[in-house]
Design goal:
Blueprint (H helix, E strand, L loop, with lengths): L4 H4 L2 H16 L5 H15 L11 H14 L5 H25 L4 H8 L2 H8 L6 H14 L6 H21 L7 H16 L4 H24 L3 H6 L13 E2 L3 H17 L18 H18 L3 H18 L2 E2 L10 H20 L6 H25 L17 H14 L2 E3 L13 H14 L7 E5 L4 E4 L14
Parallel strand pairs: 3-4
Antiparallel strand pairs: 1-2, 4-5
Length: about 475
């Protein structure tokens, strides 16, 4: 066991280094959604717009725009931003685990930090995976919330609920974490004030105002607000993206199959390409069995009975709910990271409880079972690290179809500083505007703007008229767009 508190605090750094190596290895290509969400959407946001109702991750765009305006833009800057957030989040998680599990906190911390699922999503230049990082930060703030400190508690609440909304606006999967944070907050409030009183009303009002403020500010900032409420073309808007709950058997069975494969067999869902998944091979099933048996024993003995039952019920409920989120074929673990977080929470409780038992017949079998998942994550890490460089089926094909997309962009930027750039992109069967220009234009324009480069004009060649047409954000207007 790791008894030294100083040695324990090296673990978040170890996790960060492991993630940084993984992220660096992934920087050999850029996927279509990464181009959309880190170039086009952020450039549109810089100009007070959203592309359509589905691409409305305003929290993520705000973060990237702030970084780009402060430090400049690089093709892989979003990956570095996520690394910074993850470093903070794992220190927060370590503090929470250390507080409740003392010297036994090391195993759940390493298991979560080396999770193949989290490792993969955190390597993308997308907001996928940020919901987990923001949850750990909010959880740490909430755990340390002290109502005895009046001013301090108010500041903490503003940070917690403002960050919670910002996280929800960054990736809509954070919705599944909100009830968990809310339940913890109400429990702490009840511990302090018991029955409902004026103090409850005061703190709930602070919660509501803090939570809604980021949403209101970003809504006011956006010029084409109608797309945030209900995009007439996509039928989507804030917090909905491409998902909706559908009470359809086909959707349910499709999601069950996909999430099962994502967890136990091989990556199947959209944008999930970890070669070895969370419980791949056969022996991680023993960890599931150990946690299940441990939970039953704890419920039987009365130790943490209510907490274990609550977490188990929440896990089952979320599993059923997430399985109903359509459309069909687009389900998967990217929407269900909360399932892993809850499961690993149960693992942490069972692990700590088992080690503390002096007379438990199956103690060492349970310890072995809980330990196997850490062995698995450590064993598959080098395998996934070696596979992350393989060409993704989601690689952007119009402009960045290369193992060195940064060189492609650098070439356009050199030309833009010397003369006008003419973008020639004619699709098969088309003789005019190619939709891929909406990807390369914001990359060039945004890079020039955020890096203070003196660039000339950007044009595209229209074969039908035989003329070079100037390209700027006004070419697309402020309405909803569907391509690409």
């Amino acid at each position: 066991m790791i008894n030294s508190k100083y040695l324990f605090w090296l673990l978040p750094i170890l996790i960060f280094i492991s993630q940084a190596i993984y992220t660096y290895a992934s920087a050999v290509q850029i996927r279509l959604e990464e181009v959309i969400e880190t170039f086009r959407s952020v450039w549109w946001f810089q100009n007070g717009l959203v592309w359509n109702g589905s691409y409305s991750f305003l929290g993520w765009y705000t973060t990237l725009a702030a970084v780009y305006n402060t430090f400049g833009m690089g093709i892989y800057t979003p990956k570095m931003v996520k690394l910074a957030i993850e470093l903070v989040s794992y220190f927060c998680l370590a503090a929470v685990l250390r507080r409740y599990f003392s010297q036994n906190a090391w195993l759940p911390l390493l298991v979560i930090g080396l999770s193949p699922t989290f490792m993969y999503f955190n390597s993308l230049s997308l907001s996928m995976g940020l919901e987990v990082s923001y949850f750990f930060i909010c959880l740490w703030l909430l755990v340390n919330l002290d109502f005895k400190k009046r001013i301090g508690s108010v500041i903490s609440q503003i940070l917690i609920w403002g960050l919670a909304m910002f996280a929800w606006l960054s990736y809509f999967g954070f919705i599944f974490y909100l009830p968990i944070l809310g339940a913890i907050f109400l429990y702490k409030l009840w511990q302090k004030y018991k029955l409902i009183s004026t103090a409850w009303l005061k703190y709930l009002l602070i919660l509501l105002v803090s939570f809604l403020t980021p949403l209101i500010l970003l809504y006011l900032y956006t010029q084409n607000k109608q797309l945030l409420i209900l995009d007439p073309l996509s039928g989507k808007g804030l917090f909905r993206s491409f998902a909706k709950v559908e009470l359809a058997p086909d959707v349910w069975f499709s999601n069950l199959r996909i999430i099962w494969r994502d967890l136990f067999v091989a990556p199947t869902s959209y944008y999930f390409e970890a070669f070895e998944v969370e419980f791949s091979d056969f022996y991680p099933v023993l960890t599931l069995a150990a946690v299940f048996v441990g939970c039953l024993l704890m419920i039987k003995t009365g130790k943490f009975r209510k907490l274990v039952i609550l977490l188990t019920a929440t896990l089952i409920f979320y599993f059923l709910l997430i399985s109903l989120v359509g459309p069909e074929t687009l389900g998967g673990i990217r929407r269900g990271t909360v399932l892993l977080v809850i499961f690993y929470g149960l693992l942490a409780i069972v692990w700590d409880w088992t080690i503390r038992q002096k007379r438990l017949r199956w103690k060492y079998l349970l310890i072995l079972g809980c330990s196997l998942i850490l062995f698995h994550h450590a064993a598959v890490y080098p395998v996934n690290l070696g596979k992350i460089r393989q060409e993704s089926v989601f690689r952007e094909k119009w402009w960045f179809n290369s193992s060195q997309p940064e060189r492609i962009l650098a070439g356009y930027l050199r030309r833009a500083q010397e003369s006008d750039v003419v973008l020639t992109c004619v699709e098969a069967g088309r003789e005019s505007f190619c939709p891929g220009i909406s990807l390369i234009y914001p990359a060039i324009a945004g890079f020039c703007h955020w890096n203070n480069l003196s660039c000339r004009g950007i044009f595209f060649y229209e074969s039908k008229s035989g003329q070079d047409v100037p390209v700027d954000i006004g070419l697309w207007g402020t309405g909803s767009h569907t391509e690409p």
